[in-house]
Amino acid sequence: MGKRIMNTKELSTYLGINEKKIYTLITEKKLPATKVTGKWIFLKDMIDNWLENSTGEKHYIKESKDVLMITGSDDILFNKLTDMIKKHVPHLFPFLCKTGSLKGMTVLKEGNAHMAGAHLLDEETKEYNLPFIDLYLKEYHTVTVNFAKREQGILLKKGNPKGIKNLEDLVRKDIRCINRQKGSGTRKLLDVLIKKLGISNLLINGYKKEVTTHFEVGLNVLNDNVDCGLGIKAVEKMLDLDFIPIVKERFDIIILKEFFFLKQVQKFLEVLRSQQFKKIAKNLGGYDTMDSGKIIYDN
Q: Is residue 211 in some structural domain?
């Protein structure tokens, strides 16, 4: 969402909860809000900061049985999963704050979320997420569950009018690119890949042009604002674009062990392991759900 100021309806969409719950949070003074001419308004930056850094939220997420705080990386299938939870577990309110993989670990570390999605590739070990968990969450007990494996690649206009073939073409002077924000797993992936190819990011036109979601990357390509950008395959089908596959990456969910057996976390995992989830993933395209819901790391 590009708007910096939101009303209750817009905030409801942004957080993925109903307006009644928002008014409850305001009354309980658990949500930063301001009243102007009789109406509640919310600054997006303050809402994001509240989700990420509010020390009061630590107690709230430990005690509340109807809220699931989720942070970390952006993913279209993950959005679908939270929609499924709202439908199948109507008393549960999942808050989804897309901070990027690295920042998501910080939010988790501060105790302001139950779980964080991540897909960080370690340059040295070629392993996803686990080296970063050992680095950023080494003092905490966590459980890492596989969400899915997904295809990342170059999103292009239909028909590939610029004839882009690979990452090396990003340095061409006639190519306009778009990038993900610092701290995102996709940004980290691009940096690792171009370093391996010996490409300086200074040579990529648009390297500093940032958006926060895969869908935004696709929209910028579709609207001819740029020629390409790194993103997931699911966007190709949604926006009728072209796609050059680069890697198949592992997207995991990191959960603080103290929250792992909470009812709302277990409900989340139950939906994640369902056949309906796998069916939705198959229809989107670009996902492998063979290990979805499987515990891959427990420290």
A: yes
Q: What CATH number is associated with residue 195?
A: 3.40.190.10
Find residue 297's DSSP bridge partners: 144
d(CA 157, CA 226): 9
Last residue of a domain, one of 233, 248, 263: 248
Question: What is the separation of C-alpha 206 from the centre of its chain, rounded to a whole number of angstroms?
Answer: 22
Tens of pLDDT, residue by residue over 194-251, are: 999 999 999 999 999 999 999 999 999 999 999 999 999 999 999 999 999 999 999 9
Residue 250 Cα distances to 32, 58, 65, 116, 158, angstroms: 35, 29, 30, 14, 27
- Choose the final residue of a domain: 210, 228, 248: 248
Domain span at 30: 1-53
CATH of the domain at 28: 1.10.1660
pTM of the shown model: 0.80
